[in-house]
Amino acid sequence: MVVATRQSDSMFSSGRLLDEDKINKALNNASELGAEYAEIRLVSQTTNTASLKDGKLERAIPGEEIGVTMRILADGAWGVHSTSDISSIPEQVESTLRLAKAVAARRSSSQLPVGLAEVPIIEDVTHWRSVKDVRDTDLDTRIEMMLAIDNEAKDHENIVSTSTGWSDEHIHTELMTTEGMNRVWSFQRSLINGMVTAREGSDVVSYRMRHGGEGGLEVIESCDLGEMGRNARISALRLLKAERAPSGKMPLVADRDLTGVYIHEALGHPCEADLVAAGDSCLEGRLGQTIGSEICTVVDDPTMRGGYGCYPVDDEGVNTRPKNLIVNGVLTEYLNHRETAHRYDLDPNGGARAQDGLHHPLVRMSNTVIQGGTHKDLDELIEESNSGFTLAVAEAAR
User: Fold this and answer.
1) Which of these, 72, 301, 314, 368, could form a disulfide with 322 (CB 3.0-4.6 Å)?
2) What domains are there in the chain, each with its CATH number?
3) Predicted local confidence at residue 11, as pLDDT
4) pLDDT tens digits, residue range 157-193?
């Protein structure tokens, strides 16, 4: 099976999908009916997923999805309507406004009314164009690149199973608001991954690998896929011989992947201001306090091109920027969107992210970065520890 048509020639490839005149009329109608604010956001996604199991094609699914979400703020509460039918949006203004007013009427005395921090009103078009548009990649090429991993990963008698996966997406977003915001942006992500399972006697281990980021086919081409498969095979075989780690308290030097998991869970999520507002964060009320080592500085950076978590504009139309979560151990900033920025009297910092066009934006992380320290390299860091362990890659399993 080969995809014969170029997906970049599809309806989702370029141009506007929203009828600006009709959307402006719908937004004006919302204002005339009493809305404090209204927005209409469209997201179209062109996607491809494929997978091999033991070197054989298991599935290959191209897709094109579109979703539109309208949010109306009235009496300090949100009304939200989502649909895949673009033409029906203007007809839903009155019902969505009524929903917002109904939510406001049921607000308890302990709940604060919703307010939005002010942001620059921008009209522009931003396309992060890939070097090689991933939508022009046919299935044969995807299979060939997955096989480059698989052929090396399975090359040992103790390797009992391999699986390899591919996913890519082209994301196109349009946003119009009653404030006059009118923005269009797009970007791509590409990812290849795999898993190797090894067995010796009754011991069975698995090792996972992945490579990807923002961009098109060039992202996958930048990786030596054969080496990726070899390294996974070698790591799986080493795990079969590995001793169990001792228990107790001891120094630990963790690699970037494992450290990334820890910092994502232990710091990134607690810094999301919507969780702070809900009382679900251990960092509530701790801005300006020392919460970590003075050698530690952590930044959330959606502008870091190539990272899987980067994006040009957040889903409320706010320009992205690096956010200094911890500076020398001090908590200096939350991730926020316009609602939480208003609540905590902070500047919006581009942290609003929606799952797709059928969901409203939440506060979520992008690329989490731990700034480098004073050590020259890993060897120097290890030399300072008289004993302990180095720990690498959180995706190995036994």
Assistant:
1) 301
2) 7-241 (3.30.2290.10), 252-397 (no CATH)
3) 47
4) 999 999 999 999 999 999 999 999 999 999 999 999 9
Residues 6+ apart with CB under 8 A from 186: 126, 127, 128, 170, 171, 172, 173
CB 154 within 8 A of CB 55: yes
30-72 pLDDT, tens digit per residue, is: 999 999 999 999 999 999 999 999 999 999 999 999 999 999 9
Distance CA 99, CA 86 (A): 20
At 115, give phi and psi (nearest 5°).
-130, 160
State residue 353 phi and psi, 5-degree precision. -135, 130
Q: What is the pLDDT of residue 247?
A: 86
Name beta bridge partners: 272: 335
Which of 138, 127, 146 lies closest to 212 in space, CA to CA? 146
